[in-house]
Model the fold of this input.
Amino acid sequence: MKDLRAKTIRGGLARIGSQAANLALRLGSLMILARLLDPKDFGLVAMVTVLTGALNLFRDFGLSTATIQRTNITEEQLSTLFWINVLFGALLTCIALASAPVIADFYHEPRLRWIAVALAGVFLLNALGVQHSALLQRQMRFTTLAAIETMATVVSVGVGIVAAFQGFGVWALVGMTLVAPIVYSISVWLASSWTPGLPRRNVGIGSMMRFGGTVTLNSIVVYVAYNVEKVLLGRFWGADALGIYGRAYQLVNLPAENLNSAIGEVAFSALSRIKDDTNRLRSYFLKGYSLVVSVTLPITIAGILFADDVILVVLGPKWSDVAPIFRLLAPTILVFAMINPMWWLLAATGLVGRSLKIGLVLAPLVILSYVVGLPYGPRGVALAYSTIMMLWLIPHLAWCVHGTGVSLKHVMRAISRPLLSATAATVLAAGVVLLLPESFPPIGRLLIGVPVLLVAFVGMLFYVMGQKGFYVDLLRGMTTRLTEGKVT
Done:
């Protein structure tokens, strides 16, 4: 426990670096693939993955989360959990194979059958590395995990780009999807140096199965809530419309996914170790929460102000229809940055049942918003979805923190200064953008507008709001741990 702060800081630095690299790789690959492939290629893969993705939620049955959250775990329990994961992975692969013709018939698109068959193997490939990855997280070896994740991304992106250049079309995206779990699972096996033994009965995994089952059920509810619109758009508006909406959705979710992955794994592991110390738990959580919101605010504002320029630079002229959808979805970048960290708190303190109840209330509201927006196409769906998520934000936060030792007042106080700083920076950046002529090139607008936004935000946050000390102390802690050598 005495090394927790050191491990947390070093792990956080490693994960942030890794996710920054992965974000750059994913954006870079998207920029290249968007110019080599058509919207329909992305739409075809999305049609399959939005349906089979629900099966992917069962790949570990929440047992990796249970492994990390558990105070003590035995070798027999780990081995038994591994074989349960493999069994689920094999079963899901078989279900996906059997579902391939059904998916093709549902969308009236014969090409989807073989795409679904090819992607079915992802479930078993992922399952093989679940417990090894959880073991590395439990040991807080985030530097190792960061290196593995980056390597898997590099290899898979390389395969996808080469295949696209060779004219494989949609199969370039399929190949990229398959390669990543192969590289990742092999690497975590080698890094953990752990070989599972035979499964055992009566080794005390009942409570872990119940915990994992609740986590899985919660994930299913959340997945359905946030993906039904893609099924509806694909079914009623076609692959092109889904391809356009899907690129906007992907770009909007990249920051939230990378940040939550970067800080979330470290935060959850750390909070799980101190879940019985309320004061320490509150301090750790609020610092991590404030950091996530502070980093996300400029990204959200930039997405709203510079949507047209971002799409032209990242995707190219043929994707211009993505820009208005991207702008409508941009507020959800901040919404999810404020909602997602609540999972760290609830899971670490064992309140996964509450998370499930929240999901069961939120899901119908989100699905209703899709139905309302669907007659108006991708833009209507984006507007309705973004609106309901903004309206839901405060009730969600209040419900999550109730009785945890962290109050809504604590949360709002932690983010009040970043929010005020962002408001001032938005006004300044918007003023600068308005002064630029309409003929100004998109890349030039980004190179001027985004730095102005960032400088204004950081200046306000550090000097007017007095937050410089917090971030300097965090940076000093990171650099100090690096100079002290590797924390094991």
